[in-house]
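Forum: Protein Structure Q&A
Topic: Joint prediction for protein chains with partners

I've read a bunch of threads here and the consensus seems to be that you should model interacting components together rather than docking separate models afterwards. I'd like to see that in practice. Below is the full input, 557 residues plus whatever partners are listed. Could one of the regulars post the assembled result?
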Amino acid sequence: MIRRYLRIAVAFVTGALCVLTWLHGSGLLEAQSVLPRLPDGHPDFQGLWMKSAGGFQGLFIGSLDGTNFAAGGRGGRGDGRGAGRGPAAPQYPYTPEAAAERADRLRRGYEDPEAHCHLPGVPRALDQPGGLYPVQIIQDEKSVALLHEAMHDVRIIPTDNSAHPRNYWAWDGDSRGHWEGDTLVVDVSNFNGRTWLDMAANFVDENEHVVERYSLVDHDTIQYEATITDPTVFVRPVQMRFTLKRVPAEQQILEYSCLEGERSLQHYTDQDGGKKRRAQ
Amino acid sequence: MRLVAAVAAAAILTAAVGGQSPDTTKSFVPGRLWDGKTPDFRGLWQVRDTAYVNIEGHAAEKGMAASKSIIVDPADGKIPYRPEALVTRQEHYSTRATTDPSIRCFQAGVPRATYLATPLQILQSPGNFAIVYQENHAFRVFHPDTRPHFDNADWWMGDTRYRWEGDTLVADVVAQTDQAWLDHAGNFHSAEVHIVERYHTTGADTLEYEARIEDPVVYMKPWTLRTVLYRVKRPGARIVEDECLEDANGVRRHVPPTDARNLLRSDYSRWKQRPAK
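Posted by a regular:
Agreed with the consensus. Here's the joint model:
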């Protein structure tokens, strides 16, 4: 009798192990399988998201090279040390001519297009100071739309891998997406050539080309990567990476007003040439 | 088996009838999103008249077709202004070439953004509804009315809460700035304005829009405008990036992305002409 029970128990345990092994092999136990998905099978990126500090940007607001505006840094010395303590911050790999231009623009920081309420461009649209401005994502089988609170900037990205248009130049360029597995890959081109990448006068021209990769790591985390190429400005591609975190459901996106008509002069300070501009 | 099918068919029929719009006109039943429930209003839409010049109607002028009033209540097609508010409207009208907030690059507000000369795009998924307006890249995220308004704000596009009444989307809008105009003729409201919008499809390619506008500070009684948005069916049509740019003379104007000046007049292209050391 006891032997019979034992045999049943052994059979049961063996069966359970088999099921577990199968589950493990099938990937059903892994995080990916519980990602929210639309009926078309692609990950569901919808919701309200906020960039968190991290990656290249670290604690630094506004500059890949570590010019720390958050700490009141005015540096931007371009010597690789940045204005804060810690390890050397990564540098944009400028051509010599572009490096000179960047240094020149750094002295005219008040010309930052975003300070004049122009659209930020890509990837700056998402690369806003961490924790300040959320982005609302609405998605269907044909497109992924990013509604940015900052600058009330909108990017509607078709996910059909269609071609960029001709004769179209825009601050945010033209975005065309496609899926590589669970990753949304967006090709961005057709920039108007006036974009600054940050407040520290890092810049690109109309040859800028960006490939963005959006991955849903888990229910509450989007991993964002951008590869920027611009052969007339950079000697090699630039990579940027940070995460977006889901914003609690009780919060909502608010209105942002910043257009030229909304008195951009208020963004000027005397130090930054406000008087000079007003006198003109 | 046959019985089950019959019951299912009856249930579907009942659901279809029960889901129909309670209001008058509309035998048209819109398509559904993938939840099988939510009416599908997605797409690019635009009005075909020039009511944005003056919603009370206007004569033709150079380069601009005439338009009838789009105000359906009161019947005379005029906004029932209080006397002192009418004076303000006339002041706006006489200075509109420079004081219209839209010319000064502000977001158009509700309902003005709906009947502009530029398209809007409705973005939708089950539980989500947003409208992106081409003009000044304004957008509105519609929130379910299960939560109260974010009120006491001073926004151009207001705070919107919505619900479905059958196949009609009913949106409640408050928290708008008193700086917004309703058209280029200087028609306006105060910060007390409360708008109830109704959106419903009357055909595969027509979306009827109605706004009931209540504002005791400016109007003697609530009034209602109604217009029709048509689906933009041109292949490759899209919302085009649009923002006001300031030219060398400080004049602000819209420069479309197809305008080569956007690229060639860039202040910054000069850096490439500088001789390399």
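Chain B has four helices and twelve strands.
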